[in-house]
Automatic annotation (TrEMBL):
DNA-binding positions: 33-52
A Pfam match: TetR_C_41
The protein, known as: AcrR family transcriptional regulator
HTH tetR-type domain mapped to chain residues: 10-70
Family annotation (PROSITE patterns): HTH_TETR_2
Length: 203
């Protein structure tokens, strides 16, 4: 009985998140109706309150899901690179480029910060930070990066990618801002290289 109840709650959470994700992407957080999205999920407002507390809590769950997907996608792209350094650059650039995705742009980069506050404090950002820190540690151990603090380097790199994505999402012409943001990110990251002659090869 308890197992079935837990499964039902998890199913309800998933249905509410899916319905909210669609509503927030199409209408934006402010315009999305709780009655409409709960009806879309085939549930009641009571189920929403029980699972997420309120509309803000539901947004936090949606942002967490999408942000985790973004980090996973970026890490997959980075893993296909020829080495850790190229992977680090590819991962950061991939995260920045996701700012052009309408769903990411509206939910994670525009409504998310406006409603939930500083993205660097979101739980979903922590796993991405730790992955970048581990990469930085390897590159420092290999002598490719300057012997700086790995966590500090990871925070600065992740912060640069995140803020570049936020800038693109809020700009009047996101496609125009994208290449400039990626170029600046690559230049900033290259400042961590131990030797000027180890500048990354363009891909």
């Amino acid at each position: 009985m308890a197992k079935r109840r837990a499964e039902t709650m998890e199913e309800n959470r998933a249905r509410l998140i899916a319905a909210a994700r669609k509503a927030f992407a199409e209408k934006g957080y402010a315009a999305a109706s709780m009655d409409e999205l709960t009806a879309e999920a085939g549930l009641t407002r009571g189920a929403l309150y029980h699972n997420f507390g309120d509309k803000r809590g539901l947004l936090a769950a949606v942002v967490h899901q999408i942000d985790a997907e973004m980090a996973s996608r970026a890490q997959e792209i980075g893993a296909r690179a020829e080495d850790d350094w190229q992977g680090l650059l590819a991962e950061g650039a991939a995260y920045i480029e996701m700012a052009l995705d309408p769903e990411v742009q509206r939910i994670v980069l525009l409504d998310g910060p406006a409603v939930l506050g500083d993205p660097s404090h979101w739980p979903s950002q922590n796993s991405c930070l730790q992955a970048t820190r581990r990469t930085a540690e390897r590159l420092i151990a290999q002598g490719l990066l300057k012997p700086v603090d790995a966590e500090a380097a990871a925070r600065l790199l992740n912060g640069a990618a995140l803020n570049a994505a936020l800038w693109i999402a809020a700009s009047e012409d996101p496609p125009d801002a994208l290449p400039r943001a990626v170029e600046a990110f690559r230049s900033l990251a290259s400042g961590l290289l131990a030797r000027p002659d180890s500048q990354p090869r363009r891909r």
